[in-house]
Design a protein that fits this description.
The chain is α+β, with helices and mostly antiparallel strands. The protein folds into two domains: about 1-115 and about 250-425, Multidrug efflux transporter AcrB transmembrane fold; about 125-190 and about 200-245. It is built from twelve helices and four strands, in the order H-H-H-E-H-E-E-H-H-E-H-H-H-H-H-H. The protein has helices spanning about 1-30, 35-65, 90-115, 140-150, 175-185, 215-225, 245-275, 275-300, 305-340, 345-375, 385-400, 405-430, and strands at about 125-130, 155-160, 170-175, 235-245. The protein has a four-stranded antiparallel sheet with strand order 2-3-1-4.
Length: about 450
């Protein structure tokens, strides 16, 4: 039947697209820790369930509806009403210029900010969850201002959820070790006071090496005391505190780099096996493009990168490949149909992109709607994660059309030129030599 043929033809594409996401999840599972490891497990289970639902459950439902004549015909909404004939490949140099500007600008800001790009997960520092006792809602800006007055000018302040402005004034405060050293190195030692008086002073530079988590917590309580109803440090409750040491931060940075590196390697190998090497290289270069623009966006917006953002980037890698593989699979089919019939390789690529364009836009929009809702209503705790997904989905859809396919075309053109040169050299080298002429003989 038409339904069975449709599912049979799409099965390979669905499997290829989702296996690449499973590769990213497996790498996360190998190098991730804590919540990231849990996210990788959830992602893997979700992908497997999605594939099963697409290939088995949906097939069974369609058969059931058609057999009982509940559904007599199938229609699919077309985002683009007519057959598009957009010359995408002819626009490739404009796309390269646009992407180059975004990447160079983003990476320049990223390099300029340096370690400020990294969250506490990747540098030595402290995460503190506090609750400020005050009947009036306190805004994060007021907390930042109070911390800045006490020397914590670079502290990152976030509501643990949007509702916490009205319900408890709970905040997550992230302080890098460099911020703490800045405070201790500019402090003055305490002076002697008369007996019976309270002697208080900031920690001195010589004492900074002895700072522990309790010291930092007390410094935060004192800094935020003015925001409490009573004005006392005791009314700033430390609900949770986690300190990341230099060794742990360095290890997490290494693990994050390994995650992305091995994802790229395994994806190249898989696409080389399923398609050709040029498709694998093109897909990974498109992913490098997506990751670079996402990181540049975070740098421009002055958002910090933590393990949650790395998880989002690996999710972007899987999702971006989904669109790219659909296009590549259609290229493989169309090569059998159009090769040798007067069509250039560029023509086949353009036809393939246009044929899958409606599907690409439709799936990207549905995913984008979900991520936008997550970004708006998901709360501060996953704000950076959803932001990375939001940027990655938009850029990933763009790169599957304007980056990956043009790279395949460039590779193919270079390969054909090389073959022509080799053919010319072979032809010139195979010209028969003239027979030797004896001395004195007539020519």
């Amino acid at each position: 039947t038409a339904v069975s043929n449709g599912f049979a033809r799409s099965a390979v594409t669905i499997l290829d697209a989702n296996i690449t996401t499973l590769i990213a999840a497996a790498v996360l599972l190998q190098f991730g820790t804590g919540p990231i490891e849990g996210f990788a497990i959830t992602l893997s289970v979700g992908v497997c369930a999605s594939v099963f639902a697409a290939l088995v459950v949906c097939h069974a439902l369609f058969d059931f509806l058609l057999d009982r004549r509940i559904v007599k015909s199938l229609y699919m909404l077309s985002v683009i009403p007519m057959k598009p004939k957009i010359p995408f490949l002819q626009l490739r140099y404009y796309a390269f210029l646009f992407s180059g500007i975004l990447i160079v600008a983003g990476m320049a800001v990223f390099a300029w900010r340096g370690k400020e790009n990294l969250g506490v997960d990747f540098v030595q520092g402290t995460n503190i969850n506090v609750q400020i006792n005050n009947e009036q809602p306190i805004q994060p800006g007021a907390v930042r201002e109070a911390l800045a007055k006490s020397g914590f000018g670079k502290a990152i302040v976030q509501l643990t959820s949007e509702e916490d402005v009205e319900a408890g004034n709970r905040f997550l405060i992230r302080i890098a070790e460099t911020d703490i050293k800045g405070i201790t190195s500019t402090s003055t030692p305490p002076t002697e006071k008369e007996e019976g008086t309270v002697n208080t002073a900031p920690l001195t530079a010589s004492m900074s090496k002895n700072i522990d988590g309790g010291d930092i917590g007390r410094m935060i309580q004192k800094a935020l005391a003015s925001l409490t109803k009573s004005g006392k440090p005791e009314d700033v409750a430390i609900e949770d505190q986690q300190t990341v040491g230099p060794a742990v931060g360095a290890q997490l940075r290494t693990d994050a780099i390994k995650c992305i590196f091995w994802s790229f390697i395994f994806i190249i190998m898989y696409l080389w096996f399923r398609f050709e090497l040029k498709f694998g290289v093109a897909a990974v270069l498109a992913l490098v493009h997506d990751v670079s623009i996402t990181l540049g966006t975070f740098a421009v917006l002055r958002r910090q990168i933590d393990m949650g953002v790395i998880a989002a980037i690996l999710t972007i890698i899987g999702y971006s490949l989904n669109d790219t593989i659909v296009v590549f699979d259609r290229v493989r089919e169309n090569m059998k149909l159009y090769r040798g019939k007067g069509y250039k390789y560029m023509d086949i690529l353009n036809i393939s992109i246009n044929e899958t364009l409606s599907r690409t836009i439709l799936t990207s929009l549905t995913t984008l709607f979900t991520v936008v809702v997550l970004f708006i209503f998901g709360g501060i705790a996953i704000h950076d994660f959803s932001l990375a997904l939001l940027v990655g989905i938009v850029i990933g859809t763009y790169s599957s059309i304007f980056v990956a396919s043009p790279i395949v075309l460039i590779w193919q053109e270079k390969s054909e030129q090389r073959q022509l040169r080799l053919a010319g050299q072979t032809k010139s080298g195979s010209v028969k030599k003239s027979p030797q002429v004896k001395a004195g003989a007539k020519i």
